[in-house]
Structure formats: structure tokens, C-alpha cells
Amino acid sequence: MIATQTAVRVGPLLRDWRQRRRLSQLELALTAGTSARHVSFIETGRAQPSSDMVLRLAEHLDVPARQRNALLIAAGHAPVYQETPLDAPEMTAAREAVDKILAGHEPYPALVTDGAWNLIAANNGMGKLLASVAPELVAPPANVLRIALHPDGMAPRIVNLGEWRAHLLDRLRRQCQASGSETLAALYDEALGYGGEHEGPEHNSASDLVLPMRLRHGDLELSFFSTVATFGTPMDITLTELAIETFFPADEQTREFLHS
């Protein structure tokens, strides 16, 4: 009876992830090397999946590590992914790698965020982007999306605010869909509440290749594009959710300003 009850709990969760990925039971079964009948039995609670089966299905459903642990627990198994604080001794190598990237990117801005867009670290170059942001927005725990789009944040200085807002919200929306995170969904709803129009790219000279963020800084207009890097093959939840965003000058005026 206990096994059946646990299976009932994990079944709807797996079904939700399968439907989120728009896969049929047969499609999932074929990629995971099992039968559609077995997938159906798991989803309806008629079969209790082993930990290996839960992980195999989660892998082919591209379920994030944090939610894979939740599936394992719902199926009555122990979680396999640890969540180690970034300041723990065993994270020294990862921490040093992050610090090296941030320092090596100077004088250009760079920052590190967690899975909820919270600011973990930043280099000195970020100071130029954060000028005039309300102190309460940059006080811990600071959130990068709020810093960018809140009316008391960078938003009043972003020249192409409509298209930049649309870019950030689309990126967040895709993360919500991929992760099923209620925290991200709440952040998305909060950002929508800031108001403002959502515009597509203007396709001017700077955005022919990438969408820049055009920022007022005194009498200057600075233009940046960014790249986002993540850890390869992470086995810890903290590392799976870390993102390193590096900003580059999109024009010569911005490059000269950053080097001045």
C-alpha cells in the first residue's frame, strides 16, 4: 500500500513534465528504452518506478537537477543531487574559476546569478551599469531582473527599454517553461507588473547581429551585448543553476569609455 501511494505521488509529476515537453507516452518510452505501457502504469500509479527509471525518464524529459530530486523523493527514493553552498570548501575550484572569469573580463562588466536571477557576484565593471540604481535594489539579496527592469533600477536609463524588456522577459518565460519553477513564475509576474511596452528588435546597425542594451550614461549612450556561460556537466544543484553573464562593448564609443 505504501509503494502504491508513493507511485501515485510521482506519477502525476512525471505526467506533467511529459506534457510540458509535449511528448506522448510512446515517444518518451522509445527515447528512454522502456514501453509505453510501463510509462502509463507509472503515471497512473499502477507501478512504482525504481530510482534508475525515475532518473532515466527525467533525463529524457530534460528535468532540472533540483526537480529530479523532487521526483526521486516523490517516488520514495533518496535524492542524488547535492546542493552545496558556493562558499563551502569543496567548491573552492569552482569559486576560483568564477573569480578568474570575472577578473579577467575587466574592464568590461560581468556578473554571476543563480537559478532565480539573484546576484551572486560581479566585477568592478558592473559599477558603470549600476550607477543611479536605487540602493535597496542592489542590497542583498539583489535580483538582476529587478535591477534591470524596475522603475527605480536601470530601466529609466535604458534607451531601447521596450525591446530589452521583451528580450529579458522572453528569456525568463522560457526558463519558467523549462524548469517549472514557481519562484521564476512569480518573478515573471512581478516584472510584468512594472508596466511598459514590449517591443521587438529595431534591427538598427547595432542589432543586425545581436540585440544590444543601449544605456544612457551622462552625455554618452553606451551600447552592450552579452553572452551567458554555464558550468559543463555539473553534478551539484548550485553549479547547475549558476550563470555567468559577460557584457561586451557593441561600438567603439563604449569600448573607449570602458578603457578610459
UniProtKB/TrEMBL annotation:
Q: What Pfam family is a match for this entry? A: MLTR_LBD
Q: Which residues form the HTH cro/C1-type domain?
A: 14-68
- Could you tell me one molecular function GO term of this UniProt entry? DNA binding
Classification via InterPro entries: Cro/C1-type_HTH (IPR001387), Lambda_DNA-bd_dom_sf (IPR010982), MLTR_LBD (IPR041413)
Q: Sorted alphabetically, which PANTHER family does this protein's record hold?
A: BLL4672 PROTEIN-RELATED, BLL5781 PROTEIN
Q: What is this protein called?
A: Helix-turn-helix domain-containing protein
Instruction: Give the organism, scientific name.
Output: Solihabitans fulvus
